[in-house]
Amino acid sequence: MTVPLRLVSPDDPVPATGAASVEEVFRRHSKYVASVAFRLLGREGEVDDIVQDVFLHSIDTLRQLKDPQAVRGWLGTVTVRIVRRRLRTRRIRAFLGLEWTPATEEIAAHGATPEESALLSRVYQVLDELPVDHRIAWALRHIEGERLEEVAQRCGCSLATAKRRIAAAHEVLDQVLSDE
Amino acid sequence: MSDWLQKVDRAAKQLDVDWSTQRSFLAERGFLLRRRRRRVVRATAGVAIVVMAVLGVRAALVDSAQVSTEIATSPSGNLVRFADGSTATLLGKASAVTPLEISDELIKIELTRGSARFEVTKRPSRLFQVVAAGVLVEVVGTRFVVARGDTRVQVNVEQGKVRVRGLERIAELQAGDLADFNTAPVPSDLHEASTPQISDSVKTPDSTVKAPDLTKGSTKRFKVPAHGVRTGPNEAAVGGGAPSVPEASFDELLRAADEARFNHDPGAAVAPLQRITRRYRYDDRAALAAFTLGRILADDLNRPRDAADAFADVRTLAPGGPLAEDALAREVETRMRSNDVDRARSLAQEYVRRYPHGRHLRSVGASGLLE
Fold this sequence. Notes:
Strand content of chain B: 15-25%
Number of strands of chain A: 0
Distance between the termini of chain A: 54 Å
Number of helices of chain B: 9
Number of strands of chain B: 12
Shape of chain A: globular
Oligomer: heterodimer
Helix content of chain B: 25-40%
Largest sheet of chain A: none
Number of helices of chain A: 7
């Protein structure tokens, strides 16, 4: 099936002719989606499923996308939505005793010191305990490095709400990590 | 900005997922497979509505020259025509077919009773499959007959080529070939050849089965051992000397494993993944198949010893590859689970030596194997 849009990312040259196929879109953007999902989740195990879910949801809507340059931003928004759903489901299942949540995997950030990697692991442990919306907003801001306006857009909320969520998460993290 | 936040900001810049070519390839396959299934579900829902309307005027559909329905349970001679021009002609009394999946990429039909001749329009982009009692016949464009018996399924190819996935092996049949496939597990002694129980066929003492008189022109007949391996007329008969049929390709095996996993049947994924690691060891993707096999054995099937061997194989196949570190860590874990403590300890020490800043240091260290 050929997607009837000429899709480009800001980093890639504009294709000379024709529309990108489903496979081309996936190959071009899957790394980005995987990166966002990984940095929001803090664990590798579910990244592959989330990447597939994002593209399953994306392909149907791609035809309605008016601005091809915004593909990456839009994929980021869908990724946040899928991750949020996954985190909420996991939390409910854990609450009902239907799912055992494994301890947070140790995070390895290549180039970071062992101390920094350990700190990241601890951050994700604390994030696991926070409300999902607070966690996502904070992770987008401080781990993904998004601007506040982009955090609000990805989260589908107002700028004020995004700031409030980030501040609430930050307060807990500060209490825990400043003491350690 | 607090001290810890500065460190987090610095570390986060280095934080990224290991999205290798191999991993992207597998994710792409999974995405395409799920997308195809989702479209089939939608198409099937539409077909179900059509079928219900069709059943209400069933008698009129016997004259099926114009029919696009996919279900037929009528007497011998009924024709079922698919949208792409492919047809299924039901043979014998009370033969019946049922559509399982219909999409642009796949038409999958089950022969639920009796036998049928299939004429498949040649379309490389569309796979046509016939399932009978667990035996799967795959074609791109050809003409063949499938007959379903009590313990065997017989496939007779009249034109083109088909690939048959039996319970024990996969065979490629060409025009003029005729082969039987068991529908039950083969006994360990392969020299036992029970007589096929195909209702419309003639049995001969040497277990060669003559098909119903369906073909035109001459038909090559083969001695067909119980395990379904085709042998030529001048070749050795039943037994260990029978030549093997072409093996499934890497992609076919991987697809079989993917489908098993997506059908929540991880046990069925083991055999194709094992075949990949044995027959395609020089393929770049073999290490990933071995890792996947290890995960299934360890996490889904609770077979830690076999899983450990699979993880060890990952490092044999790709010693410096992106999965080597994870495979070593998992081998430590699975050796421990299978009570091979000495080996686990040795591997844990190797992990620390190779990956002093590795991401699994904590879990390897927490295993108690390191002093």
